[in-house]
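HUMAN: I'm a chemist; might I ask for a sequence paired with its structure tokens?

ASSISTANT:
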Amino acid sequence: MDDLSADLSYIINHLGEDRSQFLNAAAPPIYQSVMFAFQTVAEMRHTIQHESELPFYTRGHNPTTDILRQKMAALEKAEDALIFSSGVAAISAALLANLKAGDHVVAVQKPYSWTNRLLTEWMPRFGISVTQVDGQDIAQYEAAIRPNTRILYAESPNSWTFEQQDLRALAQLAKKHQLLTVVDNSYATPLLQNPIEMGIDIVCHSATKYIAGHSDAVAGVACGTKAMMQQIFNAEYMTMGGVASPFNSWLLLRGLRTLPLRMERVAKTTPEIVRFLEAHPAVAEVYYPYSPNNPQYELAKSQMKQPAGQFSIRLKADQMEQVEAFCNHLKRFLLAVSWGSYESLIFPACVLYDSENYQGSVLPWDMIRFYIGLEEPESLLDDLRQALDAVWPQ
């Protein structure tokens, strides 16, 4: 086993777990306590002065969550991490902790839907302006920078059409203009992509996805320097209170144990499914970073260590009913949102139409997002064939 694998194994299985502190239990306990008691006033005073590092009140620090913090920071090559109640809570805190009225953000187009609402609807309410650009072209980021710009925001790849940003170039641009960079790394996980090593300042995750891995916990993560995490902790983390519960932190610790195995599985299966769909006459287009047909394929290989499990397709459909019929014929894919767990999923963009929360979606109605889970590829391929044949007979 090489040093990298040994380090990864240690981080996932042992880092932060001083088992002598909890009766040598192999799995860490869930500290399901709101507060922690003290023997003296001096002890209590010392703890509240170091609340981000010591257990005082679970909204600030919890021993179960602290183990997860240590592991996520190590996996992302960061000094520290904070655990939130959702991915969008982590992103919101990372951005708002570094912005004030009058500031400007340059952000990638087509980010995660709730991030987009944060950028386009909420921030302007508080005097923060946002310019969205095609992040595939770093020159567009630079052209959008203003004297009051404070943050360059990226999502690489994004979660529907999977455009990437050149993270090294983005970090260099930010340093040139003394700006902060924030990247959503949910697609790739810290196992496949480490933006901090490329010069990015803050890395966020929807830990609901691959980190949890079992479709049973919603959480988010922000990673960065100790100083930056302390800044976020002192402001948005404690004030807005979007923190993870101890039980969800424990579930994420459990999910981390199998993360390398799950990522290896989807890295082998997903390209096989993609190749089949790229060759099928009923499929108009496939969006997948690790496909040789992707114009950003070389960038994907330079930034990510191996393929992940999400991609989208557009069908050669004349009407929305054909897309719905194809989806309804699938038996091995669940119709559901999210990704990163054991089950394979589809999310047709047509369900967003007439939805109050997603009005103004720029996604075409003939697009479907796929997540490939842990099933045998043959069963998924057979299912795709029968559903395609049912709507587009050969």
Remarks:
- The first strand starts at residue 80 and ends at 84.
